[in-house]
Amino acid sequence: MTKSFMAGLIALVATASPAAAQSPSIDEQGARHGQALSAAKICPGARTTAKVTTLAAAIKDADRAAFDAASQKIILAWDKAFLCQDVDPAQAPREINSCRKSKILSCTATWSEIGPEGTALPGLLEFAP
């Protein structure tokens, strides 16, 4: 896993503009949808809310391909980065620790963006009981 890939993924996850919170583009909505699905799979205690299903259902047919592509792009990036599968056995302890740290940082940023009081698209994630 390269540092530039991780830096780019963290930057994507950590970016939330005030304008995006008011009227997010189809790509932004798709990316946040993918972020929510990925976080529910990878971040401890996270689960999606009904708002994730509502968000996906509200997309018009004309925008469906762009929404799905943006969502899938984020899901694939999270899977590659945070399932820690690209670990070199010779450097496994160091790379696994780096992967875990990146996961913690990204999960933290995700909670602040799409959690109950999120800054980008709030309410897509909640804590599982």
Observed structural traits:
67% helix, 5% strand, two-stranded antiparallel ribbon, globular, mainly alpha
Architecture overview:
- The chain has one domain (25-127).
- Helix content is 67%, strand content 5%.
- It is built from 6 helices and 2 strands; from the N terminus they run αααβαααβ.
- It has helices at residues 3-14, 18-22, 26-42, 50-57, 61-82, 92-114, and strands at residues 46-48, 125-127.
- The protein has a two-stranded antiparallel sheet.
- Helix 3 (26-42) runs parallel beside helix 5 (61-82).
- It is globular.
Helix tally? 6
Structural class: mainly alpha
By DSSP, the count of extended strands is 2
Strand order of the largest sheet: 1-2
Largest sheet: 2 strands, antiparallel
Number of domains: 1
Net shape = globular
What would you say about this model in short?
This protein has 129 residues and is mainly alpha-helical.
Task: Explain the layout of strands and helices.
Layout: H1 3-14, H2 18-22, H3 26-42, E1 46-48, H4 50-57, H5 61-82, H6 92-114, E2 125-127
Antiparallel strand pairs: 1-2
